[in-house]
Design goal:
Number of helices: 8
Shape: globular
Largest sheet: 8 strands, mixed
Number of strands: 12
Helix content: 25-40%
Oligomer: single chain
Length: about 270
């Protein structure tokens, strides 16, 4: 996003989807991390999607956005002027490692994919020194999954516990060509459909994420890794388990758990 037109195009085409993905990850944070969130730093804040998501999950949160592109900051300020007037913007390159503050939450959304490998590790380590809880969101692609897993390993090495989506602290059990990702659905405006040459009034944003914290955490017992399959008279779930394994669970129609399982969705926690 080098100029105002780039930033405006991003805000129209991509910001709604990144907001929904970040909101989903922060909702998981609120569910699984047992600590108040009052201060928030967003690295590579762009036009402010993470700030909007954080304000929706924790009304009253104080957010600072670190962004190096001035056109993005200018548009972000314009978008937030009426509803989020307390946002504070810092013009800086997050690769500088200058995070000389202590905050409850750091978000790194759709940023690691723009950095070289060495810079990715440095940014995650700098965040680990500054935050109690860190949320990383990447595109839901095989490469996005690998970047998320790499960041997850760095955070565990620095003493963080994984709160979501993983129900364990072990190595990721998902191996190539498979990858861990989730999806969130968002409505399309008429302008959205025209610009994307689409006919549907919705789209699905696929993303990978990790929530790591030094605060008390209550991870899910298991996590649903894909859309449940529903062949005749049974439901099949792909689960990531607390034992660090990936497994299939088949629930026949005769089981007591069949009826509530019909409402289970991709990405949801699953009881022990």
């Amino acid at each position: 996003m080098n100029d105002a037109l780039d930033c405006l195009a991003y805000a129209v085409m991509r910001m709604p989807a990144t907001y929904r993905a970040l909101h989903a990850a922060l909702t998981a944070t609120e569910r699984h991390v047992r600590a108040p969130i009052s201060t928030h730093l967003d690295l590579g804040g762009g036009t402010g999607a993470a700030a909007w998501a954080a304000a929706a999950v924790w009304p009253g949160v104080t957010t600072e956005l670190m962004e190096r592109q001035r056109p993005a900051i200018q548009l972000g300020r314009q978008l937030a002027a009426e509803h989020l007037p307390t946002l504070r913007w810092t013009t800086a390159d997050l690769r500088s490692g200058d995070l000389d503050r202590d905050v409850d939450l750091i978000t790194i959304g759709y940023v690691l994919n723009e950095l070289a490998e060495a810079d990715r590790a440095a940014v995650v380590k700098a965040a680990a020194r500054a935050a109690t809880t860190i949320v990383i969101v990447e595109p839901g692609t095989p490469r996005g999954h690998r970047r998320t897993v790499e960041a997850r390993a760095v955070l565990i090495e620095h003493g963080f516990a994984i709160a979501a989506p993983c129900p364990h602290q072990y190595a990721c059990p998902i191996v190539s060509p498979d990858w861990c990702h989730f999806a969130v659905r968002l409505p399309r405006t008429e302008l959205h459909r025209v610009l994307k040459d689409g006919v549907r009034n919705f789209e699905d944003e696929k993303f990978s994420y990790v929530v790591a914290t030094r605060a008390p955490a209550v991870p899910a017992a298991n996590r649903v890794l894909a859309r449940p399959a529903r062949p005749k008279n049974r439901i099949i779930l792909d689960l990531c388990t607390a034992a660090g394994t990936k497994t299939h669970l088949t629930i026949p129609k005769s089981a007591d758990t069949y009826r509530p399982t019909r409402h289970t969705t991709w990405g949801a926690p699953w009881p022990d």
